[in-house]
Amino acid sequence: MELLLESSRNQAETINTISENISSMKEKLQEVNTAMDLLMAENKNIKEQIVALSDTVTINKGSIKSLQNDLAQLKLNTNLSSTSTFPSQATYDNLMYEFNERIERKKNVVIVGIPEKNFENVEERRENDRREIEKITKTIYPGCPKAVRVQRLGKYNASKARPLKICFSTSETAIAILCNKNNIKIDGVRIHSDQTIQQQKEMKNLVLELKNRQEKGENNLIIPRK
Asked: Where would one find coiled-coil regions in this protein (predicted)?
């Protein structure tokens, strides 16, 4: 009888041990499943970051190419070439100032056609402009970050709406807005890049040259937009 009781106790202990082992295995399996879920989520996040990084690289390549074109054009406008004499310090300073100015302005866009409220308080007018700009930029570029600065260009005139200059922290934002500017559906509102005086002169000369060449029969020409 005692042998049967001892055997029964041993079997019970064995069963308990097996049950504990099974419970432990279930817990470890749950931990493995949780770890797998975390790894899959992390993998998805990494893939999304790679896609975002790829988009940023593409935009940066475009920015670099644009800057290279700007520098080449500046060299032409200042008569700098490999065969010319070394530029004076003043010429070099002007060249570098223009180049740096273009880099900074690539972070900005200029919007014309937005009515200017006739508020006596300057800050009220500015706050209204910020709200209008945010509505427009979010419409054509949903992921648009908040502007660093919004300002009207020119002297205030109650009877005329001045252009709005919008400054962002990066050139990527301005480029994205310019790429999507045709999506705007507000009559009379147009979006332009923020150009230096030198760039405006260059564009004016290009438009004049285009007109002259079209009058001579070259009707397949266009001015590429940066």
From this structure: 15-56
